[in-house]
Specification:
Organism: Capillibacterium thermochitinicola
Protein name: DUF177 domain-containing protein
InterPro entries: YceD (IPR003772)
Structural class: mainly beta
Shape: elongated
Helix content: 10-25%
Distance between the termini: 58 Å
Largest sheet: 6 strands, mixed
Strand content: 35-45%
Order of helices and strands: EEEEEEHEEHH
Radius of gyration: 25 Å
Number of strands: 8
Length: 180
């Protein structure tokens, strides 16, 4: 993956306690999300960073925000959403980063923040994306988008996902009164 954002540490590397404040724009790559869905970023995104030399490494406190597009989970229409997130990470030189589980590693005088940025964003994306809270979804019979049109299909009275349970109930017995 091409680096999303690199921080040049040369100005603060020899001064413990020194800070570097940055405001910039970043370009995020589109990624495949939950199988075949495309998570598409509307670039550019903004980023604000504060990088502090903490003797043995660097503490990075950052914020980023922008908008992205995903398909609605019910009707499959494209939805544009906004997101703003924060991240706080300790970066240690690669030689000592393995000693602390929570630390990220870097080498040389440049720090690549790509992983920290993408993790912060992905962790904030909702598990279920809807175009509207009242989205009616697709007809389970013909596939019509019920937000845009109506269809004359009769809703199935039986959910085919329950076929195995129905077969089990018929084979093994069990009534509606809770008795086996």
């Amino acid at each position: 993956m091409k680096p999303i954002y690199l921080v040049d540490l040369t100005s603060i590397k020899d001064s413990p306690g020194a800070r570097l404040e940055l405001r910039d724009q970043i370009t995020l790559p589109n990624i495949t999300w939950e199988g075949e869905r495309l998570l598409e970023f509307d670039n550019p995104w903004w980023i604000e960073l504060e990088v502090t030399n903490v003797s043995r490494g660097y503490q990075v406190n950052g914020k980023t925000g922008g908008s992205y597009r995903l398909d609605c989970d019910r009707c499959l229409e494209r939805v544009r959403l906004s997101l703003e997130t924060e991240f706080n990470d300790l970066f240690l030189p690669e030689a000592i980063s393995h000693q602390e589980e929570e630390a990220r590693s870097f080498t040389g005088d440049e720090m690549d923040l790509s992983t920290a940025i993408m993790e912060a964003i992905i962790l904030q994306i909702p598990l279920k994306v809807l175009c509207t809270p009242a989205c009616r979804g697709l007809c389970s019979v013909c596939g019509t988008n019920l937000n845009k049109a109506t269809c004359n299909c009769k809703p199935e009275s039986f959910d085919p996902r329950m076929a195995m349970l129905l077969k089990w109930k018929q084979d093994k017995g069990g009534g509606d009164d809770g008795q086996s």
